[in-house]
Amino acid sequence: QVQLVESGGGLVQAGGSLRLSCSASGRTFSQSAMAWFRQAPGKERELVGGIKWNGAVTWYADSVKGQFTISRDNAKNTASLQMNELKPEDTAVYYCAAGKYWYSSTRYSAPGDFGSWGQGTQVTVSS
User: Fold this and answer.
1) Do 78 and 96 form a contact (C-beta atoms < 8 A)?
2) Which of 25, 101, 107, 19 is nearest to 68 (CA)?
3) Which residues have C-beta within 8 Å of that of residue 92, sequence separation ≥ 6?
4) pLDDT tens-digit profile of 83-104?
5) Predicted confidence band at 46 (pLDDT cuts at 50, 70, 90)?
6) CB within 8 Å of 62: residues ≥ 6 apart
7) Beta 114-117 vs 121-126: how paired, if at all?
């Protein structure tokens, strides 16, 4: 199983940018899709976006398309979420997650498709 640790969260003004990082340990990181989810107070955890095991394909929630970018570096066992033009509604705890299935082309979006999770990092966007 992959162990994941997020970093890079914090407080930012609306219109600003943040870059979240997800550091992974475990030999299977490069074999699994990765995703970022977020959960705001009182709301369900929702997909922000994901990236295929080899980095060739990314997918995003409609609410963040063109605003957020996901990348990964399998050589360094890291994944990143670049967030631009942040809005107060982007405030949430952000989690990275590793997919359960290896070498898949499926664009997973449900939390149940991911078997490993980080502890989360808080992102707060002030207006």
Assistant:
1) no
2) 19
3) 38, 39, 40, 43, 122, 123
4) 999 999 999 999 999 999 999 9
5) very high
6) none
7) unpaired
